[in-house]
Amino acid sequence: MKFNTLTVMLCCVMLTGCSDYEWGWYVLDPSTKQGMTNLKFLTDGFSATISISLISMFFAMLIGFVVAMPALSKSPYVRGINRVYVESIRSIPVLVLLLWVYYGLPTLMDISLNHYWAGVIALSIAESAFMAEVFRGGIQAIQRGQHEAAHALGLSYWKTMRLVIFPQAFRQILPPLGNQFVYILKMSSLVSVIGLSDLTRRANELVVNEYLPLEIYTFLVLEYLILILAVSQGVRWLEKRYAIPSH
User: Fold this and answer.
1) Residue 245 has what pLDDT?
2) Where is this protein localized, as stated in its record (predicted)?
C-alpha cells in the first residue's frame, strides 16, 4: 500500500507540477560525468539483488520441498509437523526474520555471518514456507489414478514420485513458482537495512550524497520494474514451453 501511494504521488507531482520541489535530473544525466558515475553506481546493485534472489530461491525450493513431504503423509502427527513450520514461518515478517538472523544467529551459534549470507538465510527461510505450500498443492493436484497406474506397473513410491508425479506437478506449479520468485526479488530490497549493497541500498546512499530523493527513487522504481517485467516474461515463456497439452 505504501509503495502504491508513493507511486501515485510521484505521478501526480511529475504530471501536474503541483509541487515546489525543484527537480534535478542532471544527477542522472548520462551525458555528464556526474550522471554517468551515479548511473553506474546505481545499476551496479543489480548483481547483488539478482544473485541473492536466485540463491535464496534455490535454497527456499529445497527446504520447501522437504517441508512439503510430511504434508502428504497419512499420519496426522506427521502432517502436523508441516503445519507448525509453515504457519510459524509465514507469521513472522520478513524484516523481523532478517534482523533476527543477522544479529541473533551469530550470538546464539557463535559464528561469523556477513550481511550477504544473513540475507540469503533469512530470505530462504521466509520463502520456504510458501514454497512448501506450492509443492504440496502441485503434488496433490495430480489425479489419484496416476499413483494407482504407477503402482500397477510395479513402481516403488519414490520411483512413482520421481518419474510420474513430479514431472506433472512441475507443470502445475510453474506459474506460482514464477510469482514467488517475483516476490523474493521485491523482498530482497529489505537486505539493504543490514548493509548489503543492493539496488535499494545504493539508492539510499546516493540520496544522502546528492539530496535529490525523488529523482533517485524514481529511477529505483524503474530498475525494479524492468527487472520484474523481464522475469515475468521469462516465466510466461516457460509456461508456454512446458504447458500441459490440451485434448
Assistant:
1) 63
2) Cell inner membrane; Cell membrane
Q: How far apart are CA 51 and CA 32, in angstroms?
A: 30
Contact 21, 30 (CB under 8 A): no
Burial 206-228 (b: 16+ CB within 10 A, else e): bbeebebebbbbbbbeebbeebe
pLDDT digits (tens, 9 = 90+) for 75-84: 999 999 999 9
Q: Name the domain count of the chain.
A: 1
pLDDT of residue 9 exceeding 60, the answer is no
Angstrom distance (rounded) from CA 92 to CA 81: 17
Cβ-contact 181, 64 below 8 angstroms: no
Q: Distance (Å, rounded) from C-alpha 157 to C-alpha 139?
A: 13
Nearest to 62 by CA among 111, 135, 169, 114: 135
Neighbouring C-beta atoms of residue 128, cutoff 10 Å: 24
DSSP state of 162: I
pLDDT exceeds 90 at position 157 = no
Do the Cβ atoms of 165 and 147 come closer than 8 Å? yes
Q: What is the pTM of this model?
A: 0.84
In a domain, 36, yes or no: no
The pLDDT value given to residue 2: 43
Burial status of residue 182 (CB atoms within 10 A of its CB: 0-12, 13-18, 19 or more): middle
Q: What's the domain range around 100?
A: 45-241
- The CATH number given to whatever domain includes residue 168 is 1.10.3720.10
Q: Let me know if 241 is exposed, middle or buried by CB neighbors in 10 A (0-12, 13-18, 19+).
A: exposed
